[in-house]
Amino acid sequence: MPRPHCQRRIAGRPRVQVFKPRGVAMNELAEVHLQADAWEALRLCDYEGLDQEQAAARMGVSRPTISRILERGRAAVAKALVEGCSLLIDLPADAVQECADCRGSWPGPAAHVRCPACGSCRMHLLLNPADRT
Ligand SMILES: [Zn+2]
């Protein structure tokens, strides 16, 4: 029986979801998709400088899992940079937004900056990892 997958916690929120090379029309570019969990792993490890153990704890996954997610994210970013593709950050429609303080949750990736129930600003996304790494 396969091990049950834990949901992945995404605390950050991409300010921009699409990057493209300047001077080339979007419809002329190949697209590279960066999944939200890979964006979070890149944010935690390569931007904030956490080690993989710390990042894994923040996302609620194991260290080997964060390593695989990071590898996938770095490969996607490298492909976009080297091949001059557009880079799209995917926020899955089946994500659930949860308040870290009162644990209230709302379906969908729509951004509540503050919790509608308690007013907390500690909101994160929960992703179902099925069919991801
Ligand atoms: Zn709340």
Can you summarize this structure?
The protein is of the alpha+beta class and 133 residues long.
Task: Write down the secondary-structure element order.
Answer: EEEHHHEEEE
User: How many domains make up the coordinates?
Assistant: 1
**Helix/strand structural class:** alpha+beta
**What number is the mean pLDDT?**
89
Hetero compounds: zinc ion
Which stretches are low in confidence, meaning pLDDT under 50 for 5 or more residues running?
none
Sheet of most strands: 4 strands, antiparallel
Distance between the termini: 18 Å
| Oligomeric nature of the chains | single chain
Say how many strands there are. 7
Gross geometry = globular
The largest sheet has its strands arranged as: 1-7-5-6
Strand content: 15-25%
Tell me the number of helical segments per DSSP (H or I, 4 or more residues long).
3
**For the CA atoms, what is the radius of gyration?**
16 Å
Approximate helicity band = 25-40%
Structure in words:
- The chain has 133 residues and is an alpha+beta fold.
- It has one domain (8-127).
- Helices cover 31% and strands 20% of the residues.
- It is built from three helices and seven strands, in the order E-E-E-H-H-H-E-E-E-E.
- The chain has helices at 36-47, 52-59, 63-83; strands at 8-10, 18-19, 31-35, 86-90, 96-99, 105-107, 123-127.
- The strands form two sheets. It has a four-stranded antiparallel sheet with strand order 1-7-5-6, with helices on one face.
- Helix 1 runs antiparallel to helix 2 (52-59).
- The protein is globular, with a radius of gyration of 16 Å.
- The protein binds zinc ion.
- Zinc ion binds at residues 99, 101-102, 104, 115, 117-118, 120.
- The site of zinc ion has 8 residues, from loops.
